[in-house]
Write a structure and sequence with these properties.
Length: 388
């Protein structure tokens, strides 16, 4: 059975919309649907379709080679899937232009043509490539979608459009539409629930794993244990060693990460941007800020998992020497992140009590969580803080 009119074009437009190549997708959609409206058709032979299939295979291999050569990352496979409809498009276009309603498997797949053990009835079986192509378009669009509800609604509309031609006449249109709506709503609720469950499992596993190994700091968020009874555990494990300069007292505490937004039991950092810390070749140190004079110095020994992570530094640190890493970055709140260093790292931190390392507050720092706003407002009113 051929696809409903304009469904193929709408699916191609959906793919182009998600990839932000709407104009190119519109051209492909018009060509694919326009050929179906033409009164004259071309009588392509099986050999012609074999050539077209081989041409698509060459395009696919060329695209894979180009993507692999230009993008050496973990997202290479996703990029290939994202652009998969392009090299396969000629098959759909020439099928729409032909008098045939499908393409024989023997012409479509090179493996089937070369395998002599295949039965002739299998090789002559015709397949409408429009439906598999639409499935590929939806899969490719899902790789690039922006996670908004419009993607899900459009996807469900396309599925309902495709299923409309298979609707049994025994059931009324109203019943069929109501069933589609119910399935769509249940699917969305299931999707949201699975996403929430996945997030909870990831947070629980991350918390458990971090407590198990006792290392690592997330610069973007931290989960507190306030209100959890019998879950706070003390450990004798040594996380870091601090050796102050002779005649000086050690810093009162070390700072790893700073957060300024609180939601339920999780602290977040509203400044995820890390700026690079410049390395001064003359002093062979990383300069964070200008020296205020009369510095204090402390040598810190720390275990850096995999040579990458967050370094603990005293508040007011403005320079770090003998830090052998390839890259150092710091964010607005003073969280220092390093990359490609040794597992056991030592460095000299120069700091001053005149520097706090804290920036001026911004609107995010002054925000009060909505669930705490009422209680804090009542306390402020009782203490007369509004009149000050």
């Amino acid at each position: 059975m051929s696809t409903p009119l304009f469904l193929l074009g709408a699916t191609i437009l959906f793919w182009g919309w998600q990839l932000q190549i709407t104009f190119i997708a519109a051209v492909l959609a018009v060509l694919a649907e326009g050929t179906r409206l033409l009164k004259w058709k071309c009588d392509f032979s099986n050999k012609d379709f074999s050539y077209i299939s081989d041409f698509c295979s060459i395009l696919l291999v060329a695209m894979i080679i180009y993507i692999v050569a230009s993008n050496r990352s973990a997202k290479t496979l996703l990029l290939i899937i994202k652009w998969l409809p392009l090299p396969l498009y000629p098959l759909v276009f020439f099928q729409s232009l032909s008098t045939s309603r499908g393409i024989e498997l023997g012409s479509l797949l090179w493996i089937y043509r070369k395998n002599k053990n295949n039965k002739p009835e299998i090789l002559k079986r015709k397949v409408d490539v429009a439906y598999p192509y639409m499935a590929i378009c939806v899969l490719s669009a899902s790789i690039a979608n922006n996670r908004s509800i419009t993607f899900y609604v459009t996807f469900c509309a396309l599925c309902a459009w495709a299923l409309l031609s298979f609707r049994s006449k025994r059931y009324s249109s109203i019943s069929w539409i109501m069933l589609i709506v119910v399935v769509t709503v249940l699917g969305y609720c299931g999707h949201v629930s699975l996403h929430y469950l996945q997030r909870q499992l990831e947070e629980t596993f991350t918390k458990w794993f971090t407590e198990l190994i006792g290392i690592g700091t997330d610069p973007y968020k931290s989960t507190t244990s306030m209100g959890d009874i019998l879950e706070l555990k003390h450990s004798s494990q040594i996380i870091a060693r601090v050796k102050p300069r002779e005649g000086e007292k050690p810093p009162r505490f070390l700072r790893t990460a700073t957060y300024n937004i609180f939601r339920t039991s999780v602290w977040f950092d509203s400044s995820p941007y890390f700026r690079p810390v410049l390395f001064d070749s003359k002093s062979k140190s990383w300069k964070i800020a200008t020296s205020p004079g009369k510095p204090r110095e402390a040598t810190i020994y720390y275990y850096l998992d995999g040579g990458t992570g967050i370094l603990p530094i005293p508040p007011g640190t403005y320079r770090i020497a003998n830090l052998f890493v390839s890259r150092a970055q710091i964010n607005r709140l003073g969280t220092l992140k390093v990359e490609e260093g040794p597992d056991l790292i030592s460095y000299d931190a120069f700091y001053s009590r005149k520097l706090t390392g804290d920036p001026l507050p911004n609107p995010n720092d002054l925000k009060v969580p909505q669930n705490e706003d009422e209680a804090l407002s009542r306390i402020a009113q009782e203490l007369g803080l509004y009149s000050m």
